[in-house]
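Form 12-C: Joint structure prediction
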Amino acid sequence: QSALTQAPSASGSPGQSVTISCTGTSSDVGGYNYVSWYQHHPGKAPKLVIYEVSKRPSGVPDRFSGSKSGNTASLTVSGLQTEDEADYYCSSYAGNNNWVFGGGTKLTVL
Amino acid sequence: QVQLAESGGGVVQPGRSLRLSCAASGFSFSNHAMHWVRQAPGKGLEWVALIWYDGSLKYYADSVKGRFTISRENSENTLYLQMSRLRVEDTAVYYCARAHGQHFDSWGQGTLIIVSS
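Section 2 - Result
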């Protein structure tokens, strides 16, 4: 069982928005503004899409946005495109040089 | 362009040892801390270990502490993970990732380790 809880699947049609949630505890997600999100196409290198809750790395479309409330972080993908279909993982710093991840959410673009 | 390439994966019997390598290019390797992260089949990602930019500090997940050793050779732009006393539950794809703050800003494609008799 992963330290952070994510729904196993999510879906949306092209052009729609979808939100993926990531629930932790006050020792990780709730305790630090160090939540990050990764897009992973199987067989390829994971890619950072959001860091420090809501910041976007250079080159990541502004269709990707992040937020946090209490112990739950969220990734929203707006204007869904077929290339957004991938697995998405959240991560949080958990203190004492320890990091935790979620179990991943498979995003399907219908 | 940052590139990370893991190697050294394969099939190994329980109790044996294996060393993974991660070749880095496209950035100043000696200026960055580095992580190992793994993903067991059908499971989520799991943080494994961190080494500071100069190798002076190392941190491990409880699940591998005392069995795995992270190291680096900055003159060769290479990160290592020495794995000993391997268990079936260590079966996973192992990724190296560059540290940036408290996140992982670049990843390799991973190398698969299967621990099986």
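Section 3 - Comments
The radius of gyration of chain A is 13 Å. The first strand of chain A starts at residue 9 and ends at 12.
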